[in-house]
Amino acid sequence: MSTEIRANTMLPARREQITLHTADGLELIGELALPESGQPRATLVCLHPLPTHGGMMDSHIYRKAAFRLPALADIAVLRFNTRGTASEAGRSQGSFDNGDSERFDVAAALEYAEFHDLPNVWLVGWSFGTDLTLVHGLDPLVEGAVLISPPLRWSTEDHLRAWGDSGKPVHALIPEFDDYLRPEEARERFSLIPQAEVTGFTDTKHLWVGKAEAALDAIVQAVAPDVDTPLPRTWDGPSETRQVTIVNS
Questions:
Q1: In this predicted model, what pLDDT tens digit does every residue of 174-230 receive, in sequence order?
Q2: Pairing between β-strand 27-34 and β-strand 75-80 as defined by DSSP bridges
Q3: What 8-state DSSP symbol labels residue 63?
Q4: Distances (CA, A) of 79 to 105, 200, 215, 230
Q5: CA 151 from centroid of its chain's CA atoms
Q6: Cα angle 59, 82, 69; round to 5
Q7: Cα–Cα distance, 66 to 32 (Å, whole number)
Q8: DSSP labels for 217-247?
């Protein structure tokens, strides 16, 4: 019997609460969700929206990615709270630093992925997380980047050019009605990354409310193009309904 995949549907995966250790001595709360069996075809390292405005590892696109993608696409999802950020899983040590000391957080996540031999690592940033990706994420381990609603607040032209020079793929997912950067301007600003693919999403706003499926499909198309999309909207195996308590940082 098929079950409709809803916002709180959690599909089977190997899930592990993890702790990331930063070079400046902090412990960060996180979770790794892996396919039930076999090697993942890709790994998402998720960098969440601004914690001072409610962003955290449980921000809805990332929560749904962790709940669905290991089963639907054989993709591993590593999500975590940056310094000072809280979620149901707990609060990471330290305090918010406007994207500066968060460079240690990005490095800790990538170090974890490398140490645990997670394959085909992609950074997936959303809003504030896109600036962390562009400013701090150009690492040899990283295959490419998916940028959801990038405001380009801290990212400079030099950061964009560096990604362009790297040749690594960059996929920018731009809402039609974004609060900060809309498709036409995004195409102009991302022209500094010749290989960047900028995709506009109609009738979509910065927070992607009601549009998570479109975001997940686009992420999978970018990191695992051999997986058929759109992803299934129903599931024929065991599943759980998992209510997540939203915690304010």
A1: 999 999 999 999 999 999 999 999 999 999 999 999 999 999 999 999 999 999 999
A2: antiparallel
A3: H
A4: 11, 25, 16, 23
A5: 15
A6: 45
A7: 8
A8: HHHHHHH-TTS-SSPPSEESS--EE------
SS3 22: coil
Is 149 within 8 Å of 130 (Cβ atoms)? yes
Torsion, Cα 228 230 233 234, to 10 degrees, reads: -20
**Residue labelled with tokens 């600036």:** 131
* Contact of 231 with 9, CB cutoff 8 Å: no
pTM of the model: 0.97
pLDDT digits (tens, 9 = 90+) for 95-115: 999 999 999 999 999 999 999
Q: What confidence score (pLDDT) does residue 245 get?
A: 87
Backbone angles phi, psi at 123, to 5 degrees: -85, 130
Kindly state the helix (H) or strand (E) to which residue 213 belongs, with its residue range: helix 212-223
For 59, list phi and psi in degrees, rounded to 5: -50, 140
- My answer on whether omega of the bond before 238 falls inside 30° of 0, hence cis, is no
Q: Which residue has the tokens 């394959």?
A: 119
Instruction: Tell me the CA distances in angstroms from 32 to 4, 13, 46, 93, 180, one per residue in order.
Output: 24, 10, 10, 19, 31
CA angle 50, 43, 124 (to 5 degrees): 25
Strand order across the beta sheet in which 197-201 lies: 14-21, 27-34, 75-80, 42-47, 121-126, 144-148, 170-175, 197-201
